[in-house]
Amino acid sequence: MRKVKWTGVYPAVTTKFKENGDLDIPAFLKNIECQIEAGVNGIIIGGSLGESSTLTHDDRIRLLEATLETFGEQTDVILNIAEGATRTAIELAQKAEKAGAHGFMLLPPMMYKPTDQEVADYFKAVAKSTDLPILLYNNPVDYKIEITLPIFEQLAEMDNIQAVKESTRDISNVTRLKNRFGDRFKILCGVDTLAMEELLMGADGWIAGLVCAFPKETVAIYELVRAGRIEEALKIYRWFLPILELDINPQLVQNIKLAEVMTGIGTEPVRAPRHILVGDERERVIKILEDGLAARPELPDYKNL
């Protein structure tokens, strides 16, 4: 079994579709190839940015199997689980484990506001159903459920719950987790516009969105911070920030897919009910991207720091 390190850059990749809404596996794999060439440490399939709400279990397994077949020896391949029922979450986890997944990203129960104990019990039940490592997704801003420190206290007994995607928008939560649990849980920043700040506060990695269009710049920032070359990282990060802000937007999927098209490593079709960007909003996003591309920084040899 592959050991997932939960450190470095993990793109939450977009799901590529044909114009009719069917999966576009070749386009999906082309983008992942660019991510791996840039030096990412893992791939997360079927997350929010991957249009999770429109994917069936069969879709997820097809994407998982295609990624494993092509890149499974080169990088961590992580499948997102976002379900409304404990039973269906366990079914997907077991199906994906059988297909060869290396680990899971696991959201709290969807479409119901559970109590803290219900959240803890849900996570425990899924963790007990699989031998694979699990990254929890803590995003109370978008999903209205916070994985609190007392919940983490209960989950610390589960050996395969190993990491958290920290998306509370509160940088100090990195310190709270470190103070309470030390290195028990790996912490990966899940908000592009706070990534360098959280890395400097001790986060172990970055689950990134705009990496889908700008993989080299994203990995360069992470590697430069890790090497202590903060000023160089900061220069890239400041250039990147107006683009990274496209990630904290209800249309983040459309924004990032448009960015992938403009950098030549993606396609734009989305699955209904989403529409691609149009009108003034499309022009606003294109202007941000054109300005960024015109000033794209020269990167150091970040793979050999």
Automatic annotation (TrEMBL):
InterPro entries in the record: Aldolase_TIM (IPR013785), DapA-like (IPR002220)
Gene3D superfamilies: Aldolase class I
Keywords: Lyase
Pfam families reported for this sequence: DHDPS (PF00701)
Domain of life: Bacteria
PANTHER family documented for this protein: DIHYDRODIPICOLINATE SYNTHASE (PTHR12128)
Family as reported in the entry's similarity comment: Belongs to the DapA family.
The protein, known as: Dihydrodipicolinate synthase family protein
